[in-house]
Amino acid sequence: MSFRISYAPPADDTLAKMRDIDSFRNEMARTLGLDPYGHASSAVKRERDRREATVYGAIVLYYVSGSVLTVTVVRLVPLP
């Protein structure tokens, strides 16, 4: 079972400025797309579906919607 990954406008804007977009998207699909509660992610403010993880050199803040199998990235912060 895999989750669809979508990007909210602020995260999408940041994604467009990243150097290796294809590799980042592939890593997102391989990690959070398969297990959004895994990959050393942690709940934010004790909300199970509001999570944070580091993927391919970027901090990713996202929400998990299990009912529609979607991970929505709301904030993306590439590390220097």
Quick take:
This protein is α+β, with helices and mostly antiparallel strands and 80 residues long. It has helices spanning 9-17, 21-30, and strands at 4-7, 42-44, 47-55, 58-65, 70-78. A five-stranded mixed beta sheet has the order 1-5-4-3-2.
Please describe what this structure looks like.
- The chain has 80 residues and is α+β, with helices and mostly antiparallel strands.
- It has a single domain, classed as YaeB-like fold (2-Layer Sandwich).
- It has 2 helices and 5 strands, in the order βααββββ.
- A hairpin with a 2-residue loop joins strand 2 and strand 3.
- The chain is globular and about 30 Å long.
- The protein starts with a strand and ends with a strand.
Shape: globular
What is the CATH superfamily classification? RelE-like
Mean pLDDT: 96
Largest sheet: 5 strands, mixed
Q: If helices are DSSP runs of H or I spanning 4 or more residues, what is the number of helices?
A: 2
Q: Which ranges are low-confidence, i.e. pLDDT below 50, for 5 or more consecutive residues?
A: none
> Tally of extended strands?
5
End-to-end Cα distance, whole Å, is 33 Å
Summary keywords:
80 residues, alpha+beta, 5-stranded mixed sheet, 24% helix
SSE inventory with pairings:
Elements: E1 4-7, H1 9-17, H2 21-30, E2 42-44, E3 47-55, E4 58-65, E5 70-78
